[in-house]
Specification:
The protein is an alpha+beta fold. The chain contains twelve helices and twelve strands. Strands 3, 4, 5, 6, 7 and 8 form a six-stranded antiparallel sheet that branches. A four-stranded antiparallel sheet has the order 10-11-9-12, covered by helices on one side. α1 packs across α3 and α4 runs antiparallel to α5. The relative contact order is 0.08.
């Protein structure tokens, strides 16, 4: 009985070995395939191996034979070519919203899409300046739930969170449940955002997906369709989110405690927060000093200021004065 079962599985084992071990530079001879099968207790000869490979080729596998030594069979093309997999690995490693643990899991899965030899080339490091990886894997389940809601034309309920001074995400507005109509997801400034319609406020709003918890589909139809039928997602993103570019400089900011959420959202939680008194704190951070940075700081209002280095303080003062002169 074992031999009969083996004959049925033989073709699949040959396919698995070719996918895992072979590529243009790593070929497998019929002899090696035969030894592999015999080691698994499956009887085979050259004729049956040739027939199995022929079956796989007819099925659609691009299996080639090279007479160049060492001669043998190999998978000539796959669903994803090696450069494409490298691109995907780079994207996974450099994405802020994917945790380190999840990044490694995804990369290991990508490695199974090529040979073991080529998979070693995917074990690479992508270095991105000031890259902050999230620690929250809930985002994957949130994205899935939001897509389900959009596909089902359902509004959702959730509890929104914000940062506190202990670098913890805590429920916002006392844990009040938010009820909104989800319409689109966008990935901007290295974060996932939900673009939605708040019927109670009559406004289009956006929410950081990693700050949403306990997402529930209500089953009630979404509202705001007339707005989103002609919604300009790219234009909305440009108006709402900003990106930094400029000279990299270490600065010290002093802010009121209530601004901790905005600071941690921008710079991540791997920073030391130094209390100044009961109402203010300081943070040292390397930033790209630019018009966008100054504009972001102005947006925080008078309760946030640069205290170091002096030349950045003076440049900020000059910019503020120049803007004020436009209104004299």
């Amino acid at each position: 009985m074992g031999k009969v079962i083996g004959s049925k599985l033989r073709t699949l084992y040959i396919m698995q070995r070719l996918l895992e071990k072979s590529d243009e530079n790593n070929r497998i001879s019929p002899k090696e395939l035969n030894e592999m099968l015999e080691g698994m207790g499956i009887s085979a000869d050259r004729k049956s191996i040739y027939a199995d490979i022929s079956t796989l080729q007819e099925w659609g596998m691009d299996i080639m034979y090279s007479k160049e030594q060492p001669a043998g069979y190999y998978v000539a093309s796959r669903e994803f070519e090696l450069p494409e997999l490298k691109l995907l690995v780079d994207a996974v490693q450099s994405s802020k919203f994917i945790t380190h643990k999840k990044s490694q899991e995804l990369i290991r899965k990508l490695e199974h899409l090529t040979s073991e030899s080529q998979a070693r080339q995917l074990q690479r490091s992508v270095y991105v300046a000031n890259r902050i990886k999230t620690d929250n894997e809930q985002i994957f389940y949130n994205v899935n739930a939001i897509h389900e809601a959009i596909n089902a034309n359902s509004s959702i309920e959730f509890i929104y969170h914000e940062w506190n001074l202990d670098k913890q995400l805590v429920p916002k507005k006392g844990g009040r449940t938010y009820l909104i109509s989800p319409w689109a997801l966008t990935w901007d400034d290295e974060n996932y955002y939900l673009i939605a319609y708040d019927a109670e406020a009559g406004l289009t709003k956006h929410y950081r997906v990693d700050k949403m918890k306990n997402i529930t589909l209500t089953g009630k139809a979404r509202e705001g369709r007339e707005i989103f039928d002609s919604f300009d997602m790219a234009g909305y993103a440009r108006q709402t989110f900003g990106m930094f570019s400029g000279e990299k400089t270490e600065v010290i900011l002093e802010c009121s405690n209530y601004l901790i959420g905005a600071i941690l959202d921008r710079f991540g939680t791997n920073n030391i927060i130094v209390p100044v008194d009961d109402s203010r704190f300081r943070i040292r951070q390397e930033v790209n000093v630019s018009g966008q940075f100054y504009g972001w700081l102005v947006g925080l209002g008078p309760d946030a200021k640069i205290v170091y280095p002096p030349y950045v303080v003076e440049e900020f003062k000059r910019r503020i004065a120049a803007v004020a002169n436009n209104y004299e």
